[in-house]
C-alpha cells in the first residue's frame, strides 16, 4: 500500500477500505507519511466526504493511534463533553470542574484554536505554568485525586488527532463533517468516555453554517458513539454571535473565573448550566435533565465548582494566585473602545467576524505551530436584540500592536448591524439529538 494511492482514490471519490484508512493514520502518526501528503489527503476528504462507515473507521484508527483508557476503576460512569467549536466558547473551563464538583469525575481531552474559533488548551496556557500535556499515568492519577482533568492530545492520547488538527487549522480543511466527527469522537473514545454530551454549534461563527449541516454532523457523531455502546446526546446551539462577552485566551479565562465565582454573562452561564445538566443526567448523577440543571445551579452557586477549578489548576502546575487575582493574567498594552455608530437595536453581532478580529490580533494561528498572544482579544458589550445608543461602547479591543488593532477594527466594523426596529434575541438551543 502507498500513501499516494490512498490520496488518489479519495481524490477520485472512491470509498476507502478500513485497512487503507488505518494504514494512512498509522503512517502519519509514526511520521512515515509527511505533512504534505496528509494535507492532500485532508483536502481530498474535504471535497469528497466520507461515508458513515469510513468516518467510523477513521475515528477508530485515530482513537487507537495512542492508548485508549479504561477508567472504570476510578469512575463507574465516565462522562465527557465536547464542542464543535465556536467564538467565545469557554464552556469546558466552567463545566468540567462544575460536573466534577457535583460528584462525576471528568477527564477531558480538548483541542487548540482551530481557524477563527478558540481552543480550551490555548486558553488554559494563559495561566502561568499550566501543563496541558499529561501522560496517561498523570491523567489517571489526577482524575482519581481531583476528579477533574483538562488536557490536550499527547504522544499517548489520540496523537493522530493532534497531528491532523494542527494541519487542518492552516490548510482550509476544518469544516468537514467526517473530519470533525472523527476528530471529536476519537478523543472521547481515547479518553474512555461512556457518556458524551456534544455541543454542536450552528451559525456564522461555527463550522456548520446551517441547521441541516449541524444536524448531519450531530447525527454522524451520535451514530458513531451509539455503535460503540456510548450514550451520546447532541445539543445544537447558537453560534451566530459570540458566547458570553470575552473572545481571546486570557480574557476568556477571566470570564470563566467570574462565572465560577457566580458572576459572568447571563448567556454564557445559562449555556454552561444546560451542558452540565445533560452531563449530570447522562452520567446518572441526576434522574432527569431538569434535576441535573438544579444540581448544576446549586454546585455553581455554592462555590464548589470554583474550588474544583482551583484544584484542577494547581494539580496541572498552574499558578493559583493568577486565577485568584485574575488581573494578574496576561494583559494587553493597548485597550480601545469601539462605539456604536447609530441608535437602534442590534440585528447582527456576527461571531465569524469577531473571531477573525481575534485572530488578526494574534489570539489564533495562521501558520502551523505559530505562537499565539494570550493577552489579546475582544470584549463584546451588546448582543442581538439589545438596544444601543450612538457612541455607547460596542466592543473593547485588547491589542499589543497598532497595525493589528486596525485590522481587528476593520473586521469588527463588519460584525455589527443596527436597525431602528426592535428584534428578538437569538435562541440559545435549537434542538437536541436524539
Ligand atoms: N473540535 C475538535 O476537537 N475537532 C474538530 O475538528 C472541531 C472541533
Task: Describe this entry's structure for a reader.
The chain has about 425 residues and is of the alpha/beta class. It folds into three domains: about 5-50, Transferase, Pyrimidine Nucleoside Phosphorylase, Chain C (Transferase, Pyrimidine Nucleoside Phosphorylase, Chain A, domain 3, Up-down Bundle); about 80-325, Nucleoside phosphorylase/phosphoribosyltransferase catalytic domain (Pyrimidine Nucleoside Phosphorylase, Chain A, domain 2), CATH 3.40.1030; about 330-420, Aldehyde Oxidoreductase, domain 3, CATH 3.90.1170.30. Helix content is about 45%, strand content about 15%. The protein is built from 17 helices and 13 strands. The chain has helices at about 5-10, 20-30, 35-50, 50-65, 90-100, 120-125, 135-145, 160-170, 175-190, 210-225, 250-260, 265-280, 290-300, 305-315, 320-325, 350-360, 400-415; strands spanning about 80-85, 105-110, 150, 195-200, 230-240, 245, 335-340, 345-350, 375-380, 385-390, 395-400, 415-420, 430-434. A four-stranded mixed β-sheet has the order 1-4-5-13, with helices on both faces. Strands 6-9-11-7 form a four-stranded antiparallel β-sheet, sandwiched between helices. The protein is globular and about 65 Å long. The relative contact order is 0.14. It binds uracil (URA). Uracil (URA) binds near residues 111, 114, 180, 183 and 184. One of its GO terms (molecular function) is thymidine phosphorylase activity. One of its GO terms (cellular component) is cytosol. It comes from Thermoflexus hugenholtzii JAD2. One of its GO terms (biological process) is pyrimidine nucleobase metabolic process. Homodimer.
